[in-house]
Automatic annotation (TrEMBL):
InterPro entries found in the cross-reference section: Transcobalamin-like_C
Limits of the Transcobalamin-like C-terminal domain: 18-93
Name of the featured protein: Transcobalamin-like C-terminal domain-containing protein
């Protein structure tokens, strides 16, 4: 893990209409030679690890979460269709997103 915690600085990515967050993630890790592992199919991929940092490496509530325009959707990265100008972030949480400012319904 980089000292500053940033694996890839903000990067402009071109994508085609209809592509989803997962499509862009696959493109970016391939272009920048960043290790990534996932399970599941195109519609429901689950990101297990990026840059050799895996779910549960930071504790029992840790793993990767994505946000688009600072909002954490409640559905998978294989379902979120992108629009021009969208800003995607992949962040690692150690507390089911609470450490990223994410709250869940009912809390």
């Amino acid at each position: 893990m980089p000292v500053d915690g940033i694996i890839l600085a903000p990067t402009v990515v071109e994508f085609k209409e209809g592509e989803v967050v997962f499509d862009v993630l696959k493109q970016v890790v391939r272009q920048h030679k960043i290790h990534m592992e996932y399970e599941g199919s195109k519609g429901t991929p689950y990101i297990q690890g990026i840059n050799n940092l895996y779910e549960f490496d930071g504790g029992p509530l840790s793993g990767w979460m994505y946000c688009v325009n600072k909002v954490y959707p409640n559905y998978g990265c294989g379902e979120y269709k992108l629009k021009p100008g969208d800003i995607i972030e992949w962040n690692y949480t150690c507390d089911l997103g609470k450490d990223l400012g994410q709250t869940w319904l009912g809390e």
